[in-house]
Protein: 4'-phosphopantetheinyl transferase superfamily protein
Organism: Solibacillus merdavium
Amino acid sequence: MTTVAYCKIGDMPAEWQHYLPFLEAEVVQRVERMRKVEDQLRTVCAHLLTKMVLVTTFKKELSDVCFSKDSNDKYQIEQNLQFNITHSGNYVACAISKFPVGIDIEQHVKRDFSLFQSLWSDEEKQLYPLHEQEAFYSLWTAKESYGKYKGFGLQSCLTEVTIHQDGTIHLPDRIEKALAVSFVIAPKYSATVCIEDSLEAVTRYEWEQIGAFFNSV
């Protein structure tokens, strides 16, 4: 089964750099290159959250939790355990599964929705009122999570994919074995996880829990 965890970055302490030694060198280098503190906080929190859940829920040893990427640039822990992370606005989230998995959250912001028509299939344009914020972000996160599940981003080729309101993913020649499952994290946010199995739990963690965990090891 798939587990989803999320956290609010606004509660992170000013001394968040104290936790950088728990991250891989590649991640730390990427964080140091980021110009915006908000981007740094999101990346650090997402990786720490994932490591903590792997230890506390999946019973991994922290010393064994070393993230690597496969040929599709997707994170994996080992052959039979994969995860995906996402962040937007004031929240980060991770999804961990024994199967390929993709997750996306998006904060609702004002957009000119007409500029995104090239992302949707003709059928999706009929199924969803895409001029409305809720419908737009619901489909956006579903498409993005599917792209991450497959190992590519939100690209024009996704116009060949139609995601129905029940989460089924329809390709030109078949129905995908994965489902796009929406879940709730906060008002004015949309969130979807693309999974092959069932969604076991969606758990909110406070920063205090993450900090306490890493301060204790």
Observations:
- The mean pLDDT is 91.
- Residues 180 and 194 are 4 Å apart (CA to CA).
- The helical segments are 25-33, 37-56, 122-127, 133-150, 207-215.
